[in-house]
Specification:
single chain, alpha+beta, Aminopeptidase, 7-stranded mixed beta sheet, 4 helices
């Protein structure tokens, strides 16, 4: 039996085309800028990209996950956990001790994912006609 090799790394400009084909929540220019700023992480299984994590900085200082996504067929296999742990370690290494993220109230699976990893609900808001957005925090 061959064991799957999971690898996590920052996205590079060579990954741009793959990202614009899969991440349609932001503009192509935004993806390029985020790659250049090292604000996109990729997770690979056997050298194939299977997911990504985009982040920015709330109040210019607090790391905030804006999008974590795994392709169909790669969820609930521990790959998301590998990706988020890598991000958390990178943020801690860079001197951050608090992390934020959010998810829509209708996305129960995502809520449970973050809660199992120590994120705590701290409130939320309505964004126009979108479902209620729940904010989460984690202290490292």
């Amino acid at each position: 039996m061959i064991e799957n090799k999971i690898e996590t790394r920052y996205a590079e400009i060579v990954d741009y085309q793959w990202l614009i084909e899969h991440d349609d929540d932001v503009s192509n220019d935004t993806i390029k800028t985020k790659i250049e700023r090292n604000e996109v992480l990729l997770v690979l299984e056997n050298a194939k990209i299977v997911g990504w994590l985009r982040f920015n900085f709330f109040w210019d200082d607090i790391p905030f996950i804006t999008h974590l996504w795994l392709l169909d067929g790669y969820r609930q296999k521990g790959i998301g956990t590998v990706l988020i742990k890598y991000w958390e370690n990178e943020m801690k290494k860079n001197g951050h001790n608090v992390l934020l993220t959010s998810t829509q109230q209708t996305r129960e699976e995502a809520q449970h994912f973050y809660k199992r990893r120590g994120y705590v609900e701290i409130g939320g808001f309505n964004y126009f006609d979108e479902p209620y957005e729940i904010l989460y925090i984690k202290k490292l």
